[in-house]
Amino acid sequence: MSKSMKVFMFSLVAAMLLIITACGNNEGAEDNGGASENATENEAANEEAANEEAANEEAANEEEANEENAATDEDAGEVNLYTSRHYDTDRDLYDQFTEETGIEVNVIEGGGDELIERMNIEGENTEADVFITADAGNLHAAKEDGLLQEVESELLSENIPEKLRDEDNHWFGLTKRARVIVYNEDTVDPDELSTYEALTEPEWEGRVTVRTSDNMYNISLLSSLIEVNGEEEAEEWAQGIVDNMSREPQGNDRDQAKAIVAGEGDVAIMNTYYIGRMLESEDSEEQKVAESVGVFFPNQETTGTHVNISGAGVTNHSQNPENAVKFIEFLSSEEAQGSFAEANNEYPVNENVEWTELLQSWGEFKEQDINLSVLGENQQEAIRMFDRVGWK
Amino acid sequence: MRLIKRLRQYLNIWAVLSLFFISIIIIPNLLIGVNLFTEANENWQHIKDYLLQEYIINTVLLIVFTGAATMLIGTSLAWLVTNYRFPLKNFFAWGLILPLAIPAYIGAYAYHGILNYTGVIQATLRNTFDVSVNQAYFNIMTIPGAVFIFTLFLFPYVYVITKGFLEKQSASLFENARLLGSGPFNTFFSAGLPLSRAAIVGGVVLVVLEVLNDYGVVSYFGIQTFSTAIFRTWYGMKDLDSAMKLAGILMFLVIIILVLERLIRGQRNYSFSSANIRTVEPQQVKGIKGWLIFSYCLVIFSFAFIIPMVQLIYWAMLTYEDILTREFITLVFNSVFVATVTAVIIVCISLIVGNYTRLHKGLAPKIISRVITLGYSIPGAAIAIAVITLFIFIDDFIFSILSLLNLNGGIVLRTTLVMLISAYIIRFMAVGYNAIEAGFEKIGTSFTEASRGLGFSTVTTFFKVDIPILRGAIFGGFILVFVDILKELPLTLFLQPFNFSTLATQAYRFANDEMVHEASLASILIVLVSGLSIYYFHRFSQKDL
């Protein structure tokens, strides 16, 4: 449909709304005679103005998109992205993708949960082609809701290790993060640390800090423990952590690191990349905090450290599925992976990409050997478990 | 025949339009209300067993203490500013509205930033004086901490409304009290307080509704309230039904509050029969007493505005180079644009409905005037669901009509600003409407009756008499809505069109992703734009007097 056609139709709708408003008024207007038409017109004009402005806006967007398309490739089209990521480096990557393929990237940024709900409500009418969010739990939820479709792509299978992909290839991990034990270097000897489970021992009473159970990272951690240890032991673990907490759960992951440096606890359960971000912080006090804590990868002798991903899937009702696959393939490629993962101090999923110095300094580690799909499968049980043991 | 005549008498243009707007607003409310009585599932049992009690306790604690504190601060400041002259009074008169420009969640980030381990206070104590403090004394992430934050950034609602009311009161009322030998405190308690009861209660109710709807502060602080519970149940447990039940309980709470408001306001109908009211002339307070009042204002102003702003500006200086790009200007434009359009529409609807409920007695207008403000009580997320569902229906409808006409393709309204703005209107109708209703209440009906007596129609009267008298209230309503939309989060996050962001969503995204430094520039701009509009609002309302 051409641009002018769209504008025309928009005006049509505006006119229709106008008529509807006018009709509605006429029924009541008789009593008041001619004078009321003033008010009617005013009201209608207002509504029209609002519509028209929206229409103009839309038209302007359209124009922009068309122009740029014409500049590169007439038929390349576009890919519409719902993403919960928002790093400036991402935008550069999108531009690079457009440059290479001529495919325009349109973006709506939002919370992962919100975007899932939005797609649920939009159903087959959704405009989204690609959904990107953090946490395998969220991606699994999207899959369960029937929002994603199976993708056959050799390139993706090659670039991304199997356990970081959905069993049915509905979603693909693009960056990897580890949820570890961070300790105060002054008060804790890393030799005292061993596993997540050991933090429930009496010697850690009043020494553990962690954020609230609303947080997806915690939910996924418990989901993974349900998988590797069974439900009963997992619940005992959650209860044990609650008993050993040094304060009520509060704040975000950075706040946990600050708490142990401030002496409000000695060990914190948190994601590694927050330490990376604090090291890069503009605030020298935050750098000091990050420098005085150590990163410990737990369960190295046993079940492995909990890892999670941020990843992408092609939506079930995508209008541009081919472009969507191309886009995800691009993000998993060696050229994009570095900057995509580094933007957030995360681990690249593509094993051909070299780790940053910071990641190398933390060293290699053994990961939990589970397919990340289980994080989603155990999610509901984990949430209830948290409530039962009183983890706020 | 007679029946039809009767019917026509009731169904004039004002009634029809009012009913139309009301039905737009009531549909999402009804959806939630009905859901309260559907069969409970096992999640609901789980929530009742482990969580509900805490949600109720925390929510009630927050609204009771915040309500009381804002009432105390807002009313006392309004009384001092309208009745006395003291150093810098002219500045404080509008400066004390400024905290409204800082969204509570941004205030919370700033205060946590100041007070936490790496914040300026502890860092200075540690690095300069080598003092380590007990973290518990500096922990703001508690219920008292949340009350502190809400009070600082919401008290201007009470202040503005009470001050606006007091300024327009006849001086003779208070002078009589003084002549009869009342001291300043006595005058306040025996004349000022009872007279401005309705205004104070109106302001406190706005504060309470804001607290009930807050998500940013409580989720950051880890306090479980109804609003965090709704999102947790909806997104976490994937259980929309139970989430709607929680929303229903929340709505029930709001209805109780609104009924209480009506009861406290009472049947009072003071309005003036003459246009020439001599308004209160502030008394000069000299010496130590004047400076005492000044200090009180300064302390409140510092905590509620200067301190958090200094923190934000410091953060912005650390990060502006990365943030201040061309895209940033688009954000500013987007924010101002949607806020303006919505505020204009809301003011128009408020005028029409307000005029209808004022001129007609009986049950219907009363109900309408309450129902129209209900949108303010529904969690943003629930409004979002209702609106998005509605627009998908509309889009399908348009599509099928176009297909009938043999035209290809459809028009997609649901990813446009039309949808977002509709949601704003439902959500913020109350803010504009209350301001304009208060204006209508003040002018009473005598001017209108006079005009009608001279043979003018209601509509002519509306444009020639009512609107000019109301221009202060209209402008006030506009500004309040405008500022609220600048700060709005959940709806904007949920319903944004492609490639569209606002200052608020940008600030929230950064802060939510633990990049609070990067969030500061957008926050400052929200404050700046809202602050400017508040300033002009003040200038205008002064001239209007």
From TrEMBL, chain A:
Segments of skewed composition (Low complexity): 29-43
One cellular component term from this protein's GO annotations in UniProt: outer membrane-bounded periplasmic space
Segments of this protein annotated with the region Disordered: 29-79
SUPFAM superfamilies: Periplasmic binding protein-like II
Biological process, per Gene Ontology: iron ion transport
InterPro entries (alphabetical): Ferric-bd, SBP
Gene3D superfamilies reported in the protein's UniProt record: Periplasmic binding protein-like II
Chain positions recorded as Fe cation binding sites: H86, Y273, Y274
Recorded GO MF terms: metal ion binding
Signal sequence, renumbered to the chain: 1-24
Keyword Metal-binding found: yes
Compositionally skewed regions (Acidic residues) per UniProt: 44-77
Keyword Metal-binding among UniProt keywords: yes
Keywords annotated in UniProt: Ion transport, Iron, Iron transport, Metal-binding, Signal, Transport
Family in the record: Belongs to the bacterial solute-binding protein 1 family.
Protein name: Iron(III) transport system substrate-binding protein
UniProt source species: Salipaludibacillus aurantiacus
From TrEMBL, chain B:
GO (cellular component) term, any one: plasma membrane
Organism in which the protein naturally occurs: Salipaludibacillus aurantiacus
Subcellular location per the Swiss-Prot or TrEMBL entry: Cell inner membrane; Cell membrane
Membrane-spanning segments: 12-35, 55-79, 91-111, 136-160, 198-223, 243-264, 291-316, 328-353, 374-394, 400-426, 469-486, 519-537
Protein name: Iron(III) transport system permease protein
Record's keyword terms, sorted: Cell inner membrane, Cell membrane, Membrane, Transmembrane, Transmembrane helix, Transport
Transmembrane keyword on record: yes
UniProt membrane topology term: Multi-pass membrane protein
GO biological process, one term: transmembrane transport
Coiled coil: none
Protein family (similarity comment): Belongs to the binding-protein-dependent transport system permease family.
Domain ABC transmembrane type-1 residue range list: 56-261, 332-538
InterPro entries linked to this entry: MetI-like, MetI-like_sf
Gene3D superfamilies hit by this protein: MetI-like
